[in-house]
């Protein structure tokens, strides 16, 4: 880890499940997944710097929905790393969160915020902890944390903790849309009629926009039909993306955020403007996914 002594800003990118198959359920109730995941250049932002005492503040469009107490994953991440490294090596810090992603919306905002804090504090405190150690600490906070720490194109299996990076995965032009409707993840999983679906098919050897889109056509998000039946706004969101010219549309995670895949960044930007014009109260963001390293 590189040492750092000054305030640094960290991106907490949106996590997008391009495909999500539910393949089983463990005895402890956790569902087994098989998911192709990418992370976008749009997300929350965290600024972290040394301070006289611990501080935490939130700004941004979705700040009002963020708890400021110990229930917040950002603070849980800070304390988990502090317990791991000991109080002498983990002095007080000020953490400022700019909340740009909707709360509980299927794009991993809280988990990504916590991952950014783990990464940021490990460097600010100059801790001798590698990526595996950080992932182990992250997993105690939630099943999404290891993939959010990796923040690169990957296949996630198990409960989301078995990660296989996807090499040579291109950046994709995406539009993320959330209609402002709440979807309960536990309710979605509870309502699943089938939990032992087949795993994802192998990815194509050549990965480009067209091959990825064609591959996506033969995959699913097994949570989407249930979410659409519980929350009709999911269907409206997908229709809005289709109408704006998306080459492929799907819900991410347990919703209600949906994504549209576009061939170029300019096409995505035009579509975002069009959707925003029709639905000014919705969350709409044109962005690109991050390429494989």
Overview of the molecule:
The protein has 293 residues and is α+β, with helices and mostly antiparallel strands. It has 2 domains: 8-165, Ribosomal Protein S5, domain 2 (2-Layer Sandwich); 173-288, 2-Layer Sandwich (Alpha-Beta Plaits). It has helices at residues 73-85, 109-124, 131-139, 145-150, 185-190, 209-217, 224-230, 233-243, 265-278; strands at residues 8-25, 31-50, 55-59, 93-98, 154-158, 162-165, 173-178, 248-251, 258-262, 283-288. Strands 1, 2, 3, 4, 5 and 6 form a 6-stranded mixed sheet that branches. A 4-stranded antiparallel sheet has the order 8-9-7-10, with helices on both faces. The radius of gyration is 19 Å and the shape is globular.
How do the helices and strands line up, and which of them pair or pack?
Elements lengths: L7 E18 L5 E20 L4 E5 L13 H13 L7 E6 L10 H16 L6 H9 L5 H6 L3 E5 L3 E4 L7 E6 L6 H6 L18 H9 L6 H7 L2 H11 L4 E4 L6 E5 L2 H14 L4 E6 L5
Parallel strand pairs: 3-4
Antiparallel strand pairs: 1-2, 2-4, 2-5, 5-6, 7-9, 7-10, 8-9
Give a summary of the structure in a few sentences.
The chain has helices at residues 73-85, 109-124, 131-139, 145-150, 185-190, 209-217, 224-230, 233-243, 265-278; strands at 8-25, 31-50, 55-59, 93-98, 154-158, 162-165, 173-178, 248-251, 258-262, 283-288. The radius of gyration is 19 Å and the shape is globular.
């Amino acid at each position: 880890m590189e040492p750092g002594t000054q305030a640094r800003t960290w991106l907490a990118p949106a996590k997008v499940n391009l495909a999500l198959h539910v393949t089983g359920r463990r005895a402890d109730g956790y569902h087994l997944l098989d998911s192709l995941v990418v992370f976008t250049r749009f997300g929350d932002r965290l600024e972290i710097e040394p301070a006289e005492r611990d501080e935490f503040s939130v700004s941004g469009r979705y700040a009002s929905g963020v708890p400021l107490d110990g229930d917040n994953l950002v603070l849980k991440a800070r304390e988990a790393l502090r317990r791991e490294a000991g109080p002498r090596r983990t002095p007080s810090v000020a953490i400022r969160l700019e909340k740009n992603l909707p709360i509980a919306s299927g794009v991993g905002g809280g988990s990504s915020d916590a991952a950014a804090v783990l990464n940021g504090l490990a460097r600010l405190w100059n801790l001798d902890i590698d990526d595996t150690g950080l992932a182990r600490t992250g997993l105690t906070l939630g099943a999404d944390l290891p993939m959010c720490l990796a923040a690169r194109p990957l296949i996630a299996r198990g409960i989301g903790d078995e990660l296989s990076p996807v090499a040579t995965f291109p950046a994709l032009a995406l539009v993320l849309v959330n209609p402002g409707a709440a979807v309960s993840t536990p309710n979605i999983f509870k309502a699943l009629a089938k939990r032992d679906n087949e795993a994802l098919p192998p990815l194509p050897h050549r990965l480009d926009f067209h091959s990825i889109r064609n591959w996506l056509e033969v995959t699913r998000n097994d949570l989407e039909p249930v979410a659409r039946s519980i929350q009709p706004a999911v269907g409206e969101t997908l229709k809005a993306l289709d109408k704006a010219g998306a080459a492929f549309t799907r819900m991410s995670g347990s919703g209600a955020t949906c994504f549209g895949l576009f061939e170029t960044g300019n096409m995505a930007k035009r579509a975002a403007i069009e959707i925003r014009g029709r639905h000014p109260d919705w969350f709409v963001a044109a962005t690109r996914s991050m390429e494989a390293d």
